[in-house]
Amino acid sequence: MTVTVDDRIEREVYVPAPIDRVWRVLTTPEHIRAWYAPGGCEIDPHPGGRLQFRWDEHGEFHGLVERAVPDTLFRFRLALEPDHAPSDPGEATLVEFALSPEGRGTRLRFAESGIRALAVPDDAKAKHAEYATLSWTSALEELAAIAAASHN
């Protein structure tokens, strides 16, 4: 049986809030807890910085910031497995948030890539892609709602 695995998940959302507000909601621990990691978060949003996202039901996931350009781009590698710092591409995916001004608000584009390069069987890759698609879609909707509500 052949399993088809998407290598990239992409989503975008318009946020009716200024770009600096969206950046703060995207990169500060108190906001990340609200839209993504309810168990807590630690983040050093600078290139080479480490991050940890926690969920009671899933554990702690580690990442490494690759690029952080305020109000523009936030890119990091995120480990596939909990409690494991990613040390090569087979252990992590690349997560990227790109922000751009649009009218009176912000266009937020999201991508998670490198799924096919993960060092796990194809069925595990497909399961990750399916779960990540659902969880990131929900997280982005929540992030947009928080940024918009805080702006009003």
UniProtKB/TrEMBL annotation:
Pfam families with a match to the protein in the record: AHSA1
Alphabetized Gene3D superfamilies for the sequence: 3.30.530.20
Domain Activator of Hsp90 ATPase homologue 1/2-like C-terminal intervals: 17-146
SUPFAM superfamilies for the chain: Bet v1-like
Top-rank lineage group of the source organism: Bacteria
Family: Belongs to the AHA1 family.
The protein's name: SRPBCC domain-containing protein
Species of provenance: Streptomyces endocoffeicus
